[in-house]
Amino acid sequence: MTAARPSADLDRIYRAEYGRCVATLVRLLGDVNLAEEAVQDAFAAAVEKWDTLPPNPGGWIVTTARNRAVDRLRRESTREARHAQALLLHQRDEPQEVGPVRDDQLRLIFTCCHPALAPDARTALTLRLLGGLEVPEIARAYLVPEATVAQRIVRAKKKIRDAGIPYRVPAAEELPDRLPPVLTVLYLMFNEGYAATTGPLIRTDLCAEAIRLARELAALMPDEPEVLGLLALLLLTEARRPARLGATGELVLLPDQDRSLWNRALIAEGHELVRRCLRRNRPGPYQLQAAINAVHTDGAATDWRQVLALYDRLQALVPTPVVALNRAVAVAEVHGPAVALATLEGVELPGYHLLPATRADLLARLGRGAEAVAAYDEAIALAGTETERVFLRGRRARLGLP
Amino acid sequence: MATMKQYLLAVHMVEGAPTPSDDEIQTLYAQVDRVNKELQDAGVWVFAGGLLPAETATVVRSENGRTTMTDGPFAETKEQLGGFWVLKCEDLDQALSWAAKCAEACAGPVEVRPFQDEPES
């Protein structure tokens, strides 16, 4: 047994289990801060005690966290501690959980995405509590200072506790108001996994987590087309992931991807969901994005005219700079790089490397090398992962300019 | 086992806003009465009341053993507390759903604020 392997395992398990364990501990203790502390205690204990992995690491963490919490609560006599103790005592008659419980996460995500919390705080809190992301990672995902994210999380947790925001899945009549913020958060969680802002480019655990939660939501709300649309969007994006990085870990763009590597089962599932959405005929932003990805994954090559038509509808619905940027890529394929570049005139996305990267690509195709170099340099300086920097340097080098 | 929390549902009057007609006021009173009855029947009612305009307020200060009084409300803003409910609810969601009914009844925004927990004896 080497020392390195358990630590790598532990890292993986932390990523995979943190959110689930916190969610279950929140139910057991009734308090977010106590739950987080207990789970962190348990992982600290795991570092010391795990010579080999236990058969059910998540179950071990939940049990240990629960026991640690009981010990800690016995030593403390605050109101929260007594309340949590009472909750634990109350649950003694219930069957003992052997591990994280699926509904706990759904409950906690509705709490984290409660409309009484500020929109920025909802995503930060969900990424922290259910995704297990650290504050600096969330700060990079949002392009805001770490202190801002830390403060948002602290304030949100305080409001949950002080204002009495409950841990429960909303009733059917509440869902129209309560659902959209949850969808936004799952989308952002998947995005952070698919294009991680730091470290390795792809964090499959976050993608898997977002898809898992989206599936739970779709099972809970089969008649909400935007839930199906979001799930389809995530599945169709995830399906292409195996082809997204090349043999040496380099980024491969859509037209150059080896389509035989795509996950056909996920694509079939995604296409079926898109068809279900079309039959309902209540289009929304997620359904349109899913439809765009359905076109990308249909046949041997992308039908860019269809993609552009869908982007036009999406832009009419959500006229954001990010949509304008993505639409520009489709415009370039249909009407050429000059027209595409013109559509990016006045689009501003401070700190977002894909805007200068896209402009650089369009400039290069127009033969405006010096401007392309400058735009690539800007994009390289902003890119958060080495994979993307390597990719951008490669594109820049292809111009053959200093 | 569920711990009940108290919430203040505050209604604010905006100074200079058009005064409703007598008929409109009667309708509002009737609507608020109905909600009050509902709140009492549901067992969440603690206390409620409507306030006379802020110009009837007096602020009392006690500094260095001396008491001073000034005419008018404490905060010189256009929005002044016009009335309130105090409710005992299971959680914020319950308070918010009552607040939605209260806001509809009194035809104005309702601010929901949790009370501090009572100090333990």
Characterise the protein shown here.
The complex is a heterodimer of chains A (402) and B (121). By secondary structure, chain A is mainly alpha-helical. Among the domains of chain A are: 8-90, Rna Polymerase Sigma Factor, Chain: A (Orthogonal Bundle); 349-402. In chain A, 69% of the residues lie in helices and 0% in strands. Chain A has helices spanning 4-29, 32-49, 57-75, 79-90, 102-112, 119-129, 135-142, 146-163, 175-194, 204-220, 225-239, 264-280, 285-296, 304-317, 321-335, 337-343, 354-365, 369-382, 386-398. In chain A, helix 12 crosses helix 13 and helix 16 (337-343) packs antiparallel against helix 17 (354-365). The model of chain A has no long low-confidence stretch (mean pLDDT 87). Chain B is 30% helix and 36% strand. In chain B, helix 1 packs antiparallel against helix 2 (92-106). The model of chain B has no long low-confidence stretch (mean pLDDT 91). A 4-stranded antiparallel beta sheet of chain B has the order 2-5-1-6, with helices on one face. A two-stranded antiparallel sheet of chain B has the order 3-4. Chain B has 2 helices and 6 strands, in the order βαββββαβ. Chain B has 121 residues and is α+β, with helices and mostly antiparallel strands. Classes of the chains: A mainly alpha (402), B alpha+beta (121). The A-B interface holds A 79, 83, 86-87, 90, 114, 116, 162-166, 168, 170, 174 and B 1, 3, 5, 89-93, 95-96, 112, 114, 117, 120.
